[in-house]
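During the second year of the project, the team shifted from modelling isolated chains to modelling whole assemblies. The rationale, set out in the original proposal, was that interfaces cannot be judged from single-chain predictions alone. As a representative example for this report, we include one of the complexes processed in the last quarter. Its constituent sequences, exactly as entered into the pipeline, are reproduced here:
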Amino acid sequence: MKKSRKILAAVFAVAAVICLTAAVVLIIWQVSDNIRTSKSTEGLQASADAAGTPEPPISPDPSESSSEANVPETSPEPPVSTPEPTPEPVENPYRDSFLANSDMAAWLQIADTKIDYPVMWTPEDEEYYLRRGFDGSANRNGCLILDTDSSLDPLTTNLIIHGHNMKSGAMFGTLMNYEDEDYWQEHKTIALYTKECLRNYEVIAVFRTQVYKKTDQVFKFYKFFQADTTEEFDDFYQNIMALSLYDTGVTAEFGDRFLTLSTCAYHVENGRFVVVAKEVESGDTYLPIQN
Amino acid sequence: MHKKIKLFVSMLVAAAILVFLPGSSLTARAAEGNTYSLKYFGGDINDWRYVSGSTFEDGMYHRELYTLTAYDLKDGDNIVVYPSDAAPAKNLDLGSFKLGSVTVHQGAQAVVSAGSIKDCYILNGAYASVNGEVTNAYLYDNATCTFHNNVLYMVLYITDVPHSNISCGGTVGEFRIYTTAGESKGAFYDIPANTMRLTDGTIQFPVWSPNPSEAYLQAKAEADGTASIQPPANETPADSSAPSAPATDNASDEYDKVPKTGEDGTGLWLIALTGAAAVLYTVSCRLYKKAK
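Output from the structure prediction step:
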């Protein structure tokens, strides 16, 4: 009896050690993924810095508002018909990153946040980079991915970027900070560096939603990519404005383009937290990327 | 005795933690068909056009029918026919595909041809002619439909007095009439080929059986075995005035495909593993002490 108890005790002890070892391995794995993500991103950022990173778009002062409501009472002079001189194209600050991986579609940056990552686009396999790093190696943080139904060339009305909601804050781990209106006040603008130019966006709506069943006849933000008619545009626009957690004061009309950032949320099954931004004045245009 | 109970509880907790570790539940889902909506366009187009999904709204980007049959359509897919301002000058030829379902919407007109159709929905006020074997046909109120081949199971849902015009060139294994309140108005079995006819809701077929034959029951059982969703005989039928996209029944439990961007279960695994380690270690220590 004593012997069998000793054997049983040994078996339990071994099982405990195995469980503990597995837990340690998991921790090491997670930490190493975070380190690799951060090293890889920092490397790419450094290369951009060396190339002379453009000034990230600065969010307007919280006390000011970018909405149309803040148009000065005395309207400025109507624009003169003389065309503005076309700005000289400059070197793309993310040229090296584009050259390093042809799957990179753009670089997404929200000033003064952790969101400063490459955006990958793999139309043949949308989720290829969902659990892979920029170099293609396995990484649970994955990369930001541009929805395969979105396109930069030709540019679709809506670009949807998906990213993991990581507890470490990596990828879109901090996107849900936009639930706080004060956070939005400080981070109103988003920059998307594409191969051709810098596209600036202004946050227009922030909301929680979910992925619905195929048969559900409801508004699905993830189904909107192209608006060929005013009705299509208005349907999306009115729905996002209605869902928005707060009024950003930003308005849009047919012809405007959107950038939608989406990450998982846990308020419901298949929940999503979404930040929609409207494209505003474009920044620099870039020289063609060549080896 | 008290210690034995504590030991038993500890072991139970350890077992429970291991059993309920995240990732242990695996679910399998059956493959489903895609849904395509079609609409006839007159004028310069003069042909059927389609979009992916169960709605066809004005302004949507639509494609030529030949693209659907040449590239996209597969066996098991679902077709929804939408009404058009232009009367179709061309038949809706869907090749020899074995379709999961075909739904002809209210006010739509179509001559549909396919290899076979598992579930065929002809909604109130629709005009249809169907070529191809049909397993289950569901017709609503004032539907007008001619089936050119056999129909295994046919149901007509009526709100009050039927005004449907239905005929079948093949055999009908079972024909039932239900009110929208779910009340059965009759069941007719084994209707011979080219005899089944309803004119303005009046039954005009002379030969039928009040009871199902063995052959029919076997065929029905086989069809049900492969069928995914079929309304039970005593189930209240869908409201014919607002059918809820029956063509997509197969996909009713499926979520839209959107990248899953949640963090994996690392945190839960960590809690479970460390918890299990602690419990196992405690149990081990107690057993060892007892053995001493």
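Chain A touches chain B through 54 residues (CB under 8 Å). Residues 95-279 of chain A form a domain with the Sortase; Chain: A; fold (CATH 2.40.260.10).
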